[in-house]
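Hi U.,

Before I forget, here's the chain from the pilot set. I'm dumping it here mostly so it's searchable later in email.
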Amino acid sequence: MKKIWDVILLLSSFLLVFVWQKTALALYTLQALGALMVLLIILSIKRKHIFPQDHSINPFAAFGEDSPLTIFLFNTIVLLFVFATGGFTSPFFFLLFFLVFGVAFFLEPSIVFVFTIGTIAIFFPDALKDDVWGNMFKLGSIALIAPLSYFFGKGSKDQMKKEQQIEKVKEKTTTAAKTVTEDISAVLNDPKTSLTDEDKNKLTNARNQSEKITDTVNHL
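Structure:
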């Protein structure tokens, strides 16, 4: 469901920019960019305040990894900025290439192909004007790097999943080892328990091994 919601918001961003550029709203592009940037900064500050220790390898995580609104803002800001500064001739057109990777890292990697189709669709009418071959080359370049960004994004997601699984295993192992240590200590310290010296030595060794396991896991 989240993937569908992300796709809808991303397509809504393209639709908003398309309508904006084709109507009188285009006169207020600078004001819109200012407002959107302020909102993006607020989201960033809010996330850093809530998750100050977040060290995710996702380079876009600081802006709210769990908020589809963030990619909507990123995409809308970049598209409006590029259109406002000349479209294909904009010196900031290269930002779209970074955004391709941003979508792959920030959302489900496969959504990068939706972004690519949306980008080509919104720029295609202007691509048929002036330097047609140059414009087509730029759109083709975005299409060509989409698969590359997909594999990078997928690799990043897989790595994060592995790290999360490792953390869960470490947590369970530590909890189990601590429980064993506490249980053995309770048995050894219980005056009602009748144990031979050999049994006490075995339990003591088991407790020491459990403590070593806990220390080893904590230092991983």
